[in-house]
Structure formats: structure tokens, C-alpha cells
Amino acid sequence: MDYRHLGRSGLKVSEITYGNWLTHGSQVEDEAATACVRAALDAGITTFDTADTYANTRAETVLGEALKGERRESLEIFTKVYFPTGPKGANDTGLSRKHVLESAEGSLRRLGTDHIDLYQAHRYDHATPLEETMQAFADLVRQGKVLYVGVSEWTADQLRAGVELARQMGFQLVSNQPQYSALWRVIEGEVVPASRELGVSQVVWSPIAQGVLTGKYLPGQQPPEGSRATDAKGGKDMISRWMSDDVLARVQELKPVASDLGLSMAQLAVAWVLQNDNVAAAIIGASRPEQVHDNAAAAGVTIPADAMARIDEALGDAVVTDPARTADSSPKERLT
Known about the structure:
Blueprint: E1 3-5, E2 12-14, E3 16-19, H1 30-42, E4 47-49, H2 58-67, E5 76-81, H3 97-111, E6 116-121, H4 130-142, E7 146-151, H5 156-168, E8 173-176, H6 191-198, E9 201-204, H7 235-239, H8 245-252, H9 255-261, H10 265-274, E10 279-284, H11 289-296, H12 305-315, H13 324-328
Parallel strand pairs: 3-4, 3-10, 4-5, 5-6, 6-7, 7-8, 8-9, 9-10
Antiparallel strand pairs: 1-2
Organism: Pseudokineococcus lusitanus
Protein name: Aryl-alcohol dehydrogenase-like predicted oxidoreductase
Keywords: NADP, Oxidoreductase
């Protein structure tokens, strides 16, 4: 496993990071989830990403149990705050001081740890002054409950404002967690250039486009039983944007590229995002241990320039590049 620095900080993270969105506490049973975490550890993955809203806090609990007994200093545990938890009361969401501080305590308890390595603002909160949010993060850092602070799906302007406030308050904003894959490249136009300037790394989610880039979904055919595209608990909705016959046919054209490089399709997809030097880590998810081992083998892979060009040619105009899509991902009004 290779490691990369997170932003300009001294923290190193495994470039393949294990995440449990849409799986732990939801799609897969706890025993299978634990097996996937063990597989991640066996593959050299030390960085684990979750969020309090995943399975309405259940995912944090499952991850905490799965990591119990591991040397804490050898792990980097990430979680997030913003989206609704609990009964979804008026203060059960957002980035108010109340919600941030109370959520941090809940995450620490569920994860079974006394500190969070990276605490991330899961979205930008238009209903709370940014100063209030950043002050709450600063206080958690000073208390030693949070070591580093990041965000998720923030625009270039939001990152600039956040980094400046963090600097004034005596801590670093080191990372952004956006969606990024060979099919979804909206961060490349504005977010990545700004992040390079600011010393912020990307920790990217969905590098395999919810499984589409594995090539297992075929144009004109029903999705395989048990796949994400058949999951009624949320997976089916998330993957739907990629399920057109045109996109699926273009993805099939990547198979000879992967074959020529001696990679599986999943490894090609994960290695593709890691070619971007602003990406510190690619988050993988899994419902079976063998998926973890397959994806983890993408660590350290270099894709030659001619193969990168072949990928671009194959996917063509199926690729989404509009920078405005980042702003679209943050709710304009607080969810309750």
C-alpha cells in the first residue's frame, strides 16, 4: 500500500481508503461488514471513512466494532457531520455550533475512540455563518477530539473562504471529499486548481461510479441480482444516472484498455483517479472481501499517457465536466 500526505499537513493516509457508505448497517450484514474491514487491514489499508448519517449512525457503530482491538495509532479514522441524524429535529442537521459539537461527541462514542483523525463538513451549510462552523471545528481541534479538519463537496470559493478562516483560527483545512471518477470529472475545472493553490487534497468517493466502471452492467440487459443497481435502500437511485445503454456501451470499450495493462476494470477505475496528483486517496466500498482485495491492488499503479487517452476516447461525451455540479450537491436550505 502506498501513502500520500493529506494537503500540506504531516498526516499520511493510505491512497486506497475503505469507506462504508451504503454498506455497513444497511446493505450488508454486520458479519460481512467486519469481514470487509479485516480484508482492508490485510491489504494494508489503514484509513477508514464513514459519516454519522450513514444508516442513521449505524455505520459508525459497525466500523467502530470492526476496528476494536486494532492499534489506534496505526489507523486514520475519518467521519463527517452535516446531514440529519436521530429523529431529524430542527437542530439534528447542518453545521451549527450545537450540531457540530454534539455530533462529534456521538461519533466518538460510536467509533469507540477518543479522537477523530479527520472530521469533515459533509456539505456546505448555507443556513449557518461559516465563522460559527469553523469556530466549532477550531474548538474541537484545541480540545484534542479532532486532529485535522476537512470538507466534502465544497466549491472553489467555499474552499478559499474556509481555508482563510481556519488559518485565522489557528488550524488547517486539509482536505475536500468530492465525487470523482473517469465519468464524473466536475472538480477538474475549478476545485482542483484552487485546492492545489490552497494546499488542500481530494479524498474522492465513488471512483468506480457506484460500480458502473467495473463493466458488470451490460447495455440492453437487466442488472445482476444483488448488485447496487437492484438495491432499493438507496443504491439503485445513486447509480441510475449511469445506467443508460450509451454509457454502459462506452464503459465496455474500456475492457481492452484494462486487459492491456493487466488490470481488472475496477483497478483501472481506481488507478485512474489516483493519477491526479491532487488526489490523496480513493475511497472504495465493498460488500465482499474479495472486492476489497481487487480494488486495493490499484495502489501504486501508473497508467501510461496513451492508455489515459484511450480512456478519454472511449468515454467521450458521457463524461460530466460542468463545474457548477459541485454547487448543486449542497442543499440551499437546511434539511429537517
